[in-house]
Hints:
Layout: E1 2-5, E2 17-24, H1 43-46, E3 49-56, E4 61-67, E5 82-85, E6 92-98, E7 103-108, E8 112-119, E9 122-130, E10 135-140, E11 146-151, E12 155-160, E13 165-170, E14 185-189, E15 194-199, E16 202-209, H2 215-226, H3 242-250, H4 266-271, E17 280-285, E18 296-303, E19 306-315, E20 322-326, H5 332-340, H6 384-387, E21 400-406
Antiparallel strand pairs: 1-16, 2-3, 3-4, 4-5, 6-7, 7-8, 8-9, 10-11, 11-12, 12-13, 14-15, 15-16, 17-18, 18-19, 19-20, 20-21
Helix pairs in contact: 2-3
Amino acid sequence: MHLHFERNANSKCDCNILSLSWIGKVPEGDIPDDDGEGWKLNRTSYYNEGWLATGNVRGIVGVTYTSSLYECWGYELPQRTNYNLRGHRSEVIIVKWNEPYQKLASCDASGVIFVWIKYEGRWSIELINDRNTRVTHFSWSHDGRLAVICYQDGFVLVGTVQGQRISTAFLNLIDSQSHQFPVTALTWGHNDRRIFVATGPEVHIAWVSTRISSLQLICSLQIYKEIAAGSKQSVAQLPLPNRIRQIISKLFMHTIRCPVPIGSNVRDFVSRATRHRLHCTMLRHDDNEYYITPAVYTLYLEYFGGLVPLLKGKRISKIKPDFVIYDPQVSDKVIHQLEASASGLSTSNSSSKPHPDPRDDSDVDEGCASPRLRRKRTPKPSDQALNNMNYVDTLPEVSYRYNKMTIL
């Protein structure tokens, strides 16, 4: 057996990943009926494309498209390649796909279990199970019709895919706590040709070959490692036969196919149209509790169960929704330094104080602010734990790339 790890800068989340699960993409109309019979697949094509589910400490379930097909083969990407599923109020510790029924189960630290189902391009919660006890293990049966759930207190539940309880039992288990190892989650994928390994916020993808490595493969991997900066364009300049160059070029392929910018091309990413649907979230960042300074907002791209900062703007008028948008360009070196000083991404503080803005025409003044602006917004108790983990904010606030923009 031989493993080859991809070099992919876009396989990161902004917080620690606690669980992974992969499932192949089933053609439309091949999902079985409730009786679980008649499920027939072309196993070769089925495992070429699929979806990687992630559960993280923010309580978000990510569903991200993956493919083991080479780009030049001309296959079509789905219209949407990433979903961030929200609903949990504590960290998601288990995600498990139901392969025959194409459903996804997610369990959080408080014992809440959601069963998600996709209908007409949208994910929704089909079933909820809440025993108020931490789940230690969840597994679907091979035919997808049954599920077994093990709880921390030794309670074992067996139920159907429709949510009916079949049997229960109590086991006398010794409670032991584990997350002291660097690997936080692991799953197989693509007909056992890929291994997805999570180490905190990052996912590593390993290519698996069950055969003895050939001399040709070993030489190709060595050339791949020697190419400076992992440039795929450098392969075409190598004095090698076309067949060997194609083998080396395939090593630069990324299994995770979701458009995500890196620090050195954020400006181009937000300035050019894409044929993919990008789903974003806008968050307000305040450096004080009374909201007496101009509001600063950051637009985030939903990705891998987390958020990637794209654009930052400051509101400059209380009457009209006018904003000044900052230049989003940041070098990769600066981002790495900020991430290193942010205590591992999961507890980074995104409420950095903005730089003074000489062109600010807002009439908000610290000495004459309205009493209503001084009121402190208190989060709901159920949201306190998640709100304490601020999202990463690596975008600058020192230069203007865009002039005043009005939101209609």
